[in-house]
Amino acid sequence: MMQIDPDYTIQDEQALRALFEPTHGLALAKCQERLGVHAREFIRRSPFLCIGTQNSEGRADVSPRGDPPGFVQVLDDRTLAIPDRPGNNRLDTLANIIANPNVGLLFIVPGFDDTLRVNGRAMITRDPGVLSRMKVADRLPRLAIIVSINEVFLHCAKAFRRSRLWSLEAHQDRSEMPSLVKMILDETTGAPKDKDEMQKLDDGLEEAYRTTLY
């Protein structure tokens, strides 16, 4: 394991801030306690978000969530509802919320270099009045995550422009890496050597995608 020289470790906020120029006034002023008209519109357009959580010991996790645009419901100007769709049943995000309700959300809109950040406190609900608003393909989610907003602000485009995320010229060929199933098996129990057997496993995952999205 690579060793990091402890003499260069930043150990307090004062030392950290000494390395940077003061925060721009607009960057401070943009933080709001409730959703404005533009934040609402951003959420309405967004088909994808990442939710950051921590367990009771501070162990962090980030999970992607996606659905048709506008899948996150704005219940009021300080409350959001996120449907919980079928997944792998690890339940990392949900278990973390029970242990530690503080969450961070990052909303992404395809083609937009700007993002929307929301920080708040979350709870999990089975309230039929909430779930009934979230039907897709005639199926309701089993649960919803309710987020009470503490802070909301638009985030600048630098990260997306540096990464060229939406640029077709920057897109990589997925076939240059193995399938998801093979990568997991390679690093756990070992992937089958027989190509036909491996193909059956890959086809099984695709069938699961087709039949269990909702």
Describe the protein:
With 214 residues, the chain is of the alpha+beta class. The protein folds into two domains: 28-163, Pnp Oxidase, Chain A, CATH 2.30.110; 172-212, no CATH class. The chain has eight helices and seven strands, in the order αααββββαββαβααα. The chain has a seven-stranded antiparallel sheet, with helices on one face. β1 (48-54) and β2 form a beta hairpin. The chain is globular and about 60 Å long.
Throw out a few tags for this protein.
214 residues; Split_barrel_FMN-bd; Pyridox_Oxase_N; 8 helices; seven-stranded antiparallel β-sheet; Pyridox_Oxase_FMN-dep; Pnp Oxidase, Chain A; 2 domains; alpha+beta
CATH superfamily of the largest domain: Electron Transport, Fmn-binding Protein, Chain A
Give the second-level CATH assignment, the architecture of the largest domain.
Answer: Roll
Q: What are the secondary-structure elements, in order, as H or E?
A: HHHEEEEHEEHEHHH
The helicity comes to: 25-40%
Radius of gyration: 21 Å
- CATH fold category name of the largest domain: Pnp Oxidase, Chain A
Strand order of the largest sheet: 2-1-5-6-7-4-3
Mean pLDDT: 96
Which secondary-structure class do the elements indicate?
A: alpha+beta
Q: Say what oligomer this is.
A: single chain
Beta content: 25-35%
- Tell me about the largest β-sheet: 7 strands, antiparallel
The span between the termini is 42 Å
Compute the number of helices.
8
